[in-house]
Design brief:
Blueprint lengths: L1 E3 L3 H11 L5 H19 L5 E7 L4 E7 L3 E7 L6 H7 L4 E2 L1 E6 L6 E7 L8 E5 L2 E2 L3 H12 L4 E5 L2 E2 L1 H10 L4 E4 L1 E2 L2 E2 L5 E2 L5 H6 L3
Parallel strand pairs: 1-12, 4-5, 4-6, 4-8, 8-10, 9-11, 10-12, 11-13
Antiparallel strand pairs: 2-3, 6-7, 14-15
Helix pairs in contact: 1-2, 2-3
The structure holds uracil.
Uracil binds next to α6.
Length: 206
């Protein structure tokens, strides 16, 4: 299911990121901040369990997270959201999924994957700022499912309807979270209006 997280702070920060005059430092900082704000919202339904603890005053029952959290950035642009997410869930483990997109065919090609233990019992949060054709995200979801993950969330900053449709078709069990749903993809596979190449803007490359 698609969830567009509509919040004034997220809208403001995304506007800064969309502006072509925004430099690398501000782009990175705003992406990190949005990552933190989004993960606060998307973790609302995480399961908790009751444990017994002792405060300085007495014994009491209190809630703790019931399942581990794994953040799985799709390299390289997904890395730009990791530290913001970890600032909110510092106990999360970090998987890495290396994927590059063939510039001609726009097809995703996995080249690296590394996971923590217990993927099958974890909430896995796949992150990639741009949900364009959806090919890379769909392939990343396949990869984490092969590791046994069943509770998977896909967190992107900006999405195109084409990408959302593909994920909904191939992985109806995965919740998609966006900060904005944009208009369409152009002939080069860029999201319109979008924010350009997220990886290049995060890392200052061309
Ligand atoms: N990847 C990007 O970085 N930007 C787009 O607009 C589409 C895919």
């Amino acid at each position: 299911m698609l969830n567009v997280i509509d919040h004034p702070l997220i809208r403001h920060k995304l506007t800064v990121m969309r502006d072509k005059n925004t430099g690398t430092k501000d782009f990175r900082e705003n992406l990190d901040e949005i990552g933190g704000l989004m993960v606060y919202e998307i973790t609302r339904d995480l399961p908790t369990k009751e444990i017994e603890i002792e405060t300085p005053i007495c014994k009491t029952k209190a809630d703790t997270l019931a399942a581990p959290i794994v953040v799985a950035p799709i390299l390289r642009a997904g890395l730009g959201m990791v530290s913001g997410i970890l600032s909110i869930v510092p106990t999360a483990k970090v998987a890495h999924i290396g994927m590059y997109r063939d510039e001609e065919t726009l097809e995703p090609h996995p080249y690296f994957e590394k996971y923590p233990h217990h993927m099958e019992e974890s909430t896995v949060i796949i992150v990639d700022p741009m949900l364009a054709t959806g090919g890379s995200s769909a392939a990343a979801i396949d990869m984490v499912k092969k590791q046994g993950a069943t509770n998977i969330k896909l967190v992107c900053l900006v999405g195109a309807p084409e990408g959302v449709k593909l994920i909904e078709e191939l992985h109806p069990d995965v919740d998609i979270y966006l900060a904005a749903l944009d208009d369409h993809l152009n002939e080069k596979g860029y999201i319109v209006p979008g924010l350009g190449d997220a990886g290049d803007r995060i890392f200052g490359t061309k």
